[in-house]
Amino acid sequence: MRFLVKKIMETHKTIYTDKELQGMAAIIEKVLLSFGLVCRVVEIDYQENGLIFAMEPILGCSLEEIERHDKDLALALASPNGQVKMIMPIPGRALFGIELPYPKGFVPKNADNYKVLEVDRSKRENASRLARVFYWISDTSKTLATKL
């Protein structure tokens, strides 16, 4: 997973490096996957109150189940205030958001001037295939369990 940072205003320093953002995105995906929730980070935005990770769930993934794991995500991401805010769904988009607050004392100068976007589309297609295999396996195991 690779991300591209567009810098419109060079005077503003980002608080996170590209590698740190990739690491946080991977942590979110792994935490949700550990609960059987297959989602993918498709976009990261610097906003006024914190970073927003725009997530794409696969078909059949319940937003209520994802919302129940907000404390697990806050713990895994070492949230500065011990919380993450869930935006279910992002208005006008087929995505949901996870907002991670900035560390204490950090105030972005112009948050709109930075947007982190996904560049590598091939990995997104591979994740979609992996999700289909994952659900096929879970469906098969449920069918076998009911027959036993």
Describe the overall structure.
It is a single chain. With 148 residues, the protein is an alpha+beta fold. It has one domain (3-120): 2-Layer Sandwich (Threonyl-tRNA Synthetase, Chain A, domain 2). It is 38% helix and 24% strand. It is built from four helices and six strands, in the order βαββααβββα. β4 and β5 (96-101) form a beta hairpin. It is globular, with a radius of gyration of 17 Å. Mean pLDDT is 75; it is low at 1-12 and 140-145.
Helix-strand layout with pairing:
Elements: E1 3-7, H1 18-34, E2 39-46, E3 50-57, H2 63-67, H3 70-76, E4 85-87, E5 96-101, E6 114-118, H4 121-147
Antiparallel strand pairs: 1-6, 2-3, 2-6, 3-5, 4-5
What helical percentage do the residues reach?
25-40%
CATH class: Alpha Beta
CATH topology tier name:
Threonyl-tRNA Synthetase, Chain A, domain 2
Strand content: 15-25%
The first-to-last residue Cα distance is: 41 Å
Overall number of domains: 1
As residue ranges, the low-confidence spans are 1-12, 140-145
How confident overall, as mean pLDDT?
75
| Total beta strand runs | 6
Strand order, main sheet: write it out: 1-6-2-3-5-4
**Radius of gyration from the alpha-carbon trace, in angstroms:** 17 Å
Characterize the main sheet: 6 strands, antiparallel
What best-fitting shape do the alpha-carbon axes yield? Answer: globular
Look at the helices and sheets and give the structural class. alpha+beta
Level-2 CATH architecture: 2-Layer Sandwich
Order of helices and strands: EHEEHHEEEH
Number of contiguous helices: 4
